[in-house]
Write a structure and sequence with these properties.
Elements lengths: L5 H26 L6 H9 L3 H28 L6 H17 L6 H11 L4 H29 L2 H5 L3 H26 L1 H17 L6 H24 L1 H29 L5 H15 L10 H9 L6 H60 L1 E2 L5 E2 L2
Antiparallel strand pairs: 1-2
Helix pairs in contact: 2-14, 3-4, 3-6, 3-11, 3-14, 4-5, 4-14, 5-6, 6-8, 6-10, 6-11, 6-12, 8-9, 8-10, 8-12, 9-10, 10-11, 11-12, 11-14, 12-13
């Protein structure tokens, strides 16, 4: 019996994880005392304005494209010249693998894999992803702050304390991450000293078994952020472009939900929709799950209840989720797979040409350097 290799096992585990995520969605709906009524969803779609739905799909495409554009500009700032289609796969690989791996941990390694395969140095690939992560985190905080400034009364109107907790926790988590990134950039030695102290403590508590491994990893990460500091100082325009593109990416993600609601309720206030979805965005980012599955649904159902009825909310949420998460994941996966097949064929062609060159060189050596006897030794003519 042939045993499945590690790659197949990994893919099967990813599929199982995705099934679990779908199960979590169903559980959240059941616990919220709401049933999936597909007739209601069909009625919602029949009454939708097709132009607003098209805008929702375009916003989903923008979500993918703007991340690719951000990585493209960073890599060009580092002296690389990636093709646009290659930069796009760095985005789709990140989105797809983040959607199917626990804690969204597979996105950046997958993106780095394709960068390296395209001839980009591993150090530059790591820097580009870390630099992009800083802008991504900042963009989420900015959108949340804008939402509070536009309509601060919405947060107080929420009658579920757990929803408010998740939103506040989302701000705290993102702010802590940004503070950590900034500390690594400008106070690297202090962070390294503190981190090593924590590792030593965890080692004594027998929680960490390989302290040197963790110390080396911490030092490597801090070194990457130091490079980010240099880039911000030396290339401010690249930093501004990176942040702007990440902000546009997150805005596109918020706009998907806004456009879906406007498709069925054109009289709805756009800024109210934007604020409600911004709160959902900040809140589900506090949960370490791909797409905040479970948390997204819970927050959406409770926050949108401030303006809409249950039937509308459920249908709008399901359609928004299909476009922003599942369809985005499928399209990203298809593009990544297509690029991967192209890459394999390209590498196979190069290997074939290299073998042909070796064969040709060998024939030339036999022709001009002598004949080869059965024992493999050459006799000079």
């Amino acid at each position: 019996m042939v045993k499945p290799n590690k790659q197949i096992k990994k893919q099967l585990l990813n599929i199982l994880f995705l099934v679990i995520l779908v199960g979590i969605t169903v559980v959240v709906l059941v616990l919220s005392n709401r049933e999936l009524n597909f007739e209601t969803i069909l009625d919602f779609l029949r009454n939708c304005n097709p132009w607003w739905m098209a805008a929702a799909f375009l916003a989903m495409i923008g979500f993918v494209v703007f991340e690719g554009a951000s990585l493209h500009f960073i890599l060009r700032g580092l002296g690389e010249k990636p093709k646009l289609r290659s930069s796009l796969v760095y985005s789709t690989a990140d989105i797809y693998y983040s959607a199917i791996t626990p804690s969204a941990s597979g996105g950046q390694p997958a993106s780095a894999f394709y960068m390296v395969k395209d001839g980009i140095a591993a150090g530059k690939a790591s820097f580009a992803l870390v630099f992009n992560l800083v802008a991504y985190t900042t963009a989420i905080i900015v959108i949340g702050i804008v939402a509070f400034c536009v309509c601060p009364s919405f947060f107080g109107a929420l009658d579920n304390w757990f929803v408010q907790l998740l939103i506040v926790l989302g701000f705290v988590v993102q702010s802590f991450l940004l503070a950590f990134f900034v500390a690594c950039m400008f106070c690297g030695r202090a962070v390294l000293k503190l981190g090593n102290g924590i590792i030593s403590l965890l080692t004594k508590m027998k929680i960490v078994k390989k302290p040197e491994k963790w110390r080396n990893r911490l030092a490597e990460e801090i070194a990457k952020f130091k490079d980010c500091r240099s880039a911000i100082r030396e290339k401010p325009l690249m930093s501004l472009a990176n942040f702007s593109l990440n902000l546009l990416q997150r805005v596109c993600h918020v706009l998907i939900a806004c456009f879906v609601c406007l498709a069925a309720a054109p009289s709805a206030n756009f800024w109210d929709l934007f604020v409600m979805q911004a709160f959902v965005l900040v809140g589900y980012n506090s949960i370490p799950l791909p797409g905040g599955v479970g948390a997204f649904e819970f927050l959406y159902l409770n926050i949108y209840g401030l303006a809409f009825g249950d039937a509308f909310i459920l249908a709008a949420m399901m359609i928004t989720r299909v476009i922003s998460y599942y369809l985005c994941m499928i399209l990203s996966g298809v593009y990544t797979l297509g690029y991967h097949v192209h890459l394999v064929k390209k590498m196979g062609k190069k290997a074939t040409e290299a073998d042909g060159e070796k064969t040709k060189d060998g024939e030339n050596m036999n022709e001009y350097g002598g004949s080869t006897d059965e024992t493999g030794t050459g006799e000079q003519e």
